[in-house]
Design brief:
single chain, 234 residues, alpha+beta, OB fold (Dihydrolipoamide Acetyltransferase, E2P), five-stranded mixed β-sheet, three-stranded antiparallel β-sheet, 31% strand, globular
């Protein structure tokens, strides 16, 4: 796996902490050393960690070499393609009742506590639960259980306090979940065929199923999921 922050000879400073460490490349999401960083259970992804944020701020406070800036601009499109490929193999795993699901980490805007909720009149609350306040913004609150034809989602009544906010193509939705495990790399070759029954709007919601810790984890198709959520707003 390519390191997120390679040592470029043209840069004046690599992305490291003040003490010269880069834990995100060692025990974080871009590393493979064990034991894993204990903070991943809380922040889910290294980019949400204050240690990574401070290192990034420290890097940008340094002046950049002009030759390096020019080379960076020329290679920006290549870097974006490489990052896209890496994101597509990184999934965030979470639980709904007894079902385990995964969604591309690149779509996960944040994992947070359930905010203030508002009901919408004359709506089927089995799928579109209402609106949830996320940092002051009202976001459509969708029940994944209802969308996938499963059990009724009584998140607040049953003491469920976690939610996942996703964003794709400027569409933002929030789902209440029972548990968020964290991030793992999933390759296409490791996926088995998904059940054909999970079809919404003519498209399968799952791209495949993988085995993880004696569980079957359904990998959500992000585009199909967003389209299905948008249909609930019509």
């Amino acid at each position: 796996m390519q390191r997120l922050t390679p040592m470029d000879p043209h840069s004046l400073a690599p992305l490291v902490t003040a003490s010269g460490e880069d834990c995100w490349n060692q025990t974080g999401v871009w590393g493979n050393q064990t034991p894993r960083c204990s903070r991943l259970q809380e922040v889910i992804h290294c980019r949400n960690c204050d240690v990574f944020t401070r290192a990034g701020r420290r890097l940008f406070e340094n002046a950049a070499n002009l030759e390096y800036v020019g080379e960076w601009a020329d290679s920006k499109s290549i870097a974006e393609v490489q990052e896209s490929v890496a994101d597509n193999s990184s999934y965030t795993i979470f639980r709904l009742g007894n079902e385990w699901l995964a969604i591309r980490t690149s779509m996960v805007k944040e994992v947070s506590e359930i905010g203030v909720t508002h009901c919408l009149p004359h709506r089927n609350r089995e799928i579109l639960k209402g609106l949830m306040s996320v940092h002051g913004q009202l976001v459509p609150w969708i029940s994944l259980e209802g969308l996938m034809g499963g059990a009724k989602d009584d998140a607040v009544e049953n003491g469920r306090h976690r939610c996942i906010v996703i964003e794709s193509r400027q569409h933002v939705f929030v789902f209440s979940v029972a548990q968020v495990h964290g991030v793992m790399k999933i390759t296409t070759n490791s996926m088995r065929e998904a059940p054909a029954a999970l079809v919404v709007g003519g498209k399968k919601l799952l791209t495949g199923v993988v085995s993880w810790l004696e569980h079957d984890v359904g990998c959500l198709d992000g585009d199909a999921l967003v389209n299905a959520c948008n249909e609930q707003l019509l």
